[in-house]
């Protein structure tokens, strides 16, 4: 066969295929368009799948982080929880799901206080948050938070239990004890499960202020807590709950003792190194046992500037628990503080500690004298003789007499 003839036949066959599109196939141009469209469709589907996978992975990661921060997890978090319910928070997130943990109700009214694993700086940051919308988006009933600062047992818990009985929903209880102590009360007690994650405390040091801020911060997590009372294990109420509640919730001021007198135990403790942030004339002293409103409590918890100054310069023989809050409120909220305490105490005997009263001293006449001791004070701008709602220091032996008069004189 001649080469020229072969070339001619191949060329002729190619022309036929081009003209007819092959054996029943698509024209070449149409096939190219179809392949191009199919490629774009596959790319779009792949991109959509990748996008959906990314969204699902993001939601899963967000849920896991929410579980971690809201409920706490791991051994490190469990070690910081305040009492025997340490592991409850992590399992609750796994059992109930993070949706329950992130619910609005759980956010505004968290419980119990050991259900978080936050360190102090994390807790103070979280607790210092304040809503800027004045009206609450739910039916808010203001509560009084009772903050018990104790080394260990609460000998007057039975008296406080009678005081609180029948007024559920109007109060909250928080207990700061030494880290190794576990409060042992019945499950029906208002103190049950109310021990917060704590730290070591030594008398006369800044660690007492740290404990007070820790109590305030834990109580601030509950948005229903409106007033905050600091009490010790030797403190007792001298009026019934309705009287105390109405007095505090309706008050226009807070009750933090704040004064400055030229004696070694007051002005003599001022350290000139605190200037210019705290001047000598701004230095104040007062009883550690305060009562204050929510906004003042949040401001104290949020403070880092003055707390650092007191930590550095209010050292041995300065007693920051008697000076930090009185001085801070004088500097920042003087007009909103009544400059008096609502906790009665007897310093007439002198010495570093107030008088302590036991079984032989505590009689109805004694308690009545505390309630009406001739002191006159101002309440919402008007004079009153009801100046003290609580009293200290009482020895554990005083529990019996106080319980006996709880249904008569104390009326609870």
UniProtKB/TrEMBL annotation:
Organism field: Oryza nivara
Regions that span the bilayer: 40-61
UniProt xrefs under InterPro entries: BC10-like, Glyco_trans_14
Alphabetically ordered keywords of this record: Glycoprotein, Glycosyltransferase, Membrane, Transferase, Transmembrane, Transmembrane helix
Official protein name in the record: Uncharacterized protein
Pfam families in the cross-refs: Branch
UniProt key word Ion transport: no
Entry's Gene Ontology cellular component terms: membrane
Disordered, as annotated region: 1-26
Annotated compartments: Membrane
GO molecular function, one term: glycosyltransferase activity
Membrane topology: Single-pass type II membrane protein
């Amino acid at each position: 066969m001649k080469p020229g003839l072969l070339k001619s036949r191949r060329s002729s066959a190619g022309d036929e295929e081009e003209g007819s599109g092959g054996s029943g196939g698509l024209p070449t141009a149409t096939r190219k368009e179809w392949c191009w469209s199919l490629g774009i469709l596959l790319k779009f589907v792949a991109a959509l799948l990748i996008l959906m996978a990314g969204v699902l992975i993001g939601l899963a990661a967000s849920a896991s982080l929410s579980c971690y921060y809201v409920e706490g997890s791991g051994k490190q978090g469990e070690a910081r929880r305040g009492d025997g319910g340490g592991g409850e928070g992590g399992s609750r997130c796994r059992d109930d799901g993070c949706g329950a943990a992130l619910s609005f109700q759980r956010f505004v009214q968290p419980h119990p206080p050991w259900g978080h694993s936050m360190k102090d700086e994390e807790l103070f940051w979280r607790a210092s948050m304040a809503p800027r919308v004045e009206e609450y988006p739910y039916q808010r009933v203001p509560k009084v938070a009772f903050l018990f600062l104790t080394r260990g047992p609460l000998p007057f818990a039975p008296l406080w239990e009678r005081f609180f009985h029948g007024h559920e929903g109007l109060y909250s209880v928080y207990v700061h004890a030494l880290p190794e102590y576990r409060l042992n009360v019945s499950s029906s007690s208002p103190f049950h499960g109310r021990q917060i994650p704590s730290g070591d405390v030594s008398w006369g040091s800044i660690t007492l202020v740290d404990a007070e801020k820790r109590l305030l911060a834990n109580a601030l997590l509950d948005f229903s807590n409106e007033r905050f009372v600091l009490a010790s294990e030797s403190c007792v109420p001298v009026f019934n709950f309705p009287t105390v509640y109405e007095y505090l919730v309706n008050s226009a001021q807070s009750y933090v003792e704040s004064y400055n007198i030229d004696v070694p135990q007051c002005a003599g403790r001022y350290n000139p190194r605190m200037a210019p942030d705290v001047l000598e004339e701004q230095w104040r002293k007062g009883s550690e046992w305060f009562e204050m409103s929510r906004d003042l409590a949040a401001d104290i918890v949020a403070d880092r500037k003055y707390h650092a100054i007191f930590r550095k310069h209010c050292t041995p023989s300065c007693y920051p628990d008697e000076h930090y809050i009185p001085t801070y409120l004088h500097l920042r909220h003087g007009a909103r503080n009544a400059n008096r305490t609502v906790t009665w105490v007897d310093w007439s005997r002198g010495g570093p500690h107030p008088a302590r009263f036991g079984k032989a001293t505590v009689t109805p006449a004694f308690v009545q004298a505390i309630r009406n001791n001739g002191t006159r004070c101002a309440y919402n701008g008007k004079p009153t003789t009801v100046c003290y709602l609580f009293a200290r220091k009482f020895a554990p032996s005083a529990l019996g007499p106080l319980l006996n008069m709880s249904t008569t004189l104390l009326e609870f």
